[in-house]
Specification:
- It is a single chain.
- With 146 residues, the protein is α/β, with parallel strands linked by helices.
- It has a domain at 36-93.
- The protein contains four helices and five strands; from the N terminus they run βαβαβαβαβ.
- A five-stranded parallel sheet has the order 3-2-1-4-5, sandwiched between helices.
């Protein structure tokens, strides 16, 4: 028996790059066209101790606050989301792992072709490449205009 969702779900990854901003614009438009829920997801890094499997409390709180602040900046710069069912999520973890896991419930995953890290000459970055190969739903990879 399959889980029937009342509306499709679109997940978009954001990281502060210009391509992530463009991916967000595409995801918002797709959510409007499909009458879909939209999860805007920012995956932020956390360092775990190899011995205990936990993080330092002060460190984790600082990183979590920085992630929330970053997401508020994304919200402020985003195109209008009026009328959309949207969640803004800051999730600890590796970006590709977080987005691939989120894709389990999604009907579409939207990512920029390259993020804030890596080598500028690459057509696709590591996160978008991992998402294309391992996502559980179709992936829209947003590239730069030429």
């Amino acid at each position: 028996m399959t889980d029937v969702r009342s509306a499709p779900l679109i997940v978009v990854g954001v990281d502060g790059s210009s391509l992530a901003e463009t991916a967000l614009e595409y995801a918002i438009e797709e959510a409007r066209l499909r009458k879909a829920h939209l999860h805007v997801t920012y995956a932020y890094p956390v360092l775990a101790s190899g011995l205990t499997g936990s993080t330092g409390n002060d460190y984790y709180q600082q990183v979590e606050e920085s992630a929330k602040t970053f997401l508020q900046e994304v919200v402020a710069k985003a195109p209008s989301t009026e009328g959309l069912n949207i969640e803004w999520l800051a999730v600890p973890g590796n970006p590709s792992e977080v987005l691939i896991e989120a894709s389990r419930e999604a009907t579409l995953l939207v990512v920029g072709s390259r993020g804030v890290g890596g080598f500028m000459g690459l057509l696709m970055g590591s996160t978008s490449t991992q998402c294309v190969h391992y996502s559980h739903c179709p992936v829209l990879v947003v590239r730069e205009e030429h």
